[in-house]
Amino acid sequence: MASRFTLLLFLCTTLEHAESSFAQVKCSAKNVGYYGHQSLLECAVQTSPDASDAKIRGVTWRKGDEPLLVFHNGKFLKEQPGYMFAEPSWNENNMNVSMIITNTTVAHDGLYSCDVITSKGLPEKKYTRLEVQAKYSVPSVTSNPEKIIPNTRSSLICESHGGYPKGQLRWFDDSRADWSKSAEMKVQQTADGLFQLTSTLSLMPRSTLPKYICMLYNASGNKEYEINFHTFPDNDFSHGSASVQTSKILAPVLVIGSLIVGLLMALLVYRRRSQRFSTVPPRDFDDENRQYPETVTEPKDSMA
């Protein structure tokens, strides 16, 4: 009896393997979809040369226990809005049973199953995963207070939103030293499932550096953005360039101004000296009577 049971089990297993080898379902293990766009979940039936005339008897796509697309014996029994076969004119002769999600949201992230029945094989269920991604906005960096005063407490705030899955904001200085441990990061998930990231870096008096960099990393650990922030913009290179240009303009103006002032001073001194010499009376002038003395004529010798 045992040998007969073993033989029967072997025959059933062999028959099952032979039938399933005629048509097999192959699905991509992972698919990537982007928020607000179409997403493709790839599955196809591969047939052997002996089963080239195989037909699809049934296809059921599910997410969890919820059926999304159901086809059975030539009829569509269920088509939820937003889901469709990848081939617009799909029918039972088409071995491509891939499904399209027309407008991808965060809720579509997860595991899906595809059940297929063909005319040449046994029913098969395969699984595939959809990973939804949404690109974060370019980070913005602000300071509190708006203008940082040296040797006082202040903070830098870096923000980015609209991304998925959860990313990370990190802080670095100009030498690429990591300051992220000194920062506080907050993650908020909005009603649409997307994430808003906020990281606050506290700056201590007498230890504030002139430049900090906020970097955004996605869920895979890849850097997407980096934003530079200069704590003292008046000392920044760009402002320094403006100062150099200003100095080049002011230098000749100051020289010319100094020359003009020097000439005016010299002219003033000259005029004062001229006035001084013009008001000094002659040595014979009678200052009391305000007249010159009369000329005394010596008498002539009568003997002459």
From TrEMBL:
Protein's GO biological process: cell surface receptor signaling pathway; cellular response to lipopolysaccharide; immune response; negative regulation of T cell proliferation; positive regulation of T cell proliferation; T cell costimulation
Transmembrane regions listed in the UniProt entry: 249-270
Pfam family, one: C2-set_3
Main subcellular location of this protein, as a coarse class: membrane
Compartments, as annotated in UniProt: Cell membrane
InterPro entries, A to Z: BTN3A2-like_Ig-C, Ig-like_dom, Ig-like_dom_sf, Ig-like_fold, Ig_sub, Ig_V-set, T-cell_Activation_Regulation
Extent of the signal sequence: 1-20
Keyword Transmembrane helix in record: yes
Membrane topology, as annotated: Single-pass type I membrane protein
UniProt-listed Gene3D superfamilies: Immunoglobulins
Protein name (Swiss-Prot/TrEMBL): Uncharacterized protein LOC114437826 isoform X2
Organism encoding this protein: Parambassis ranga
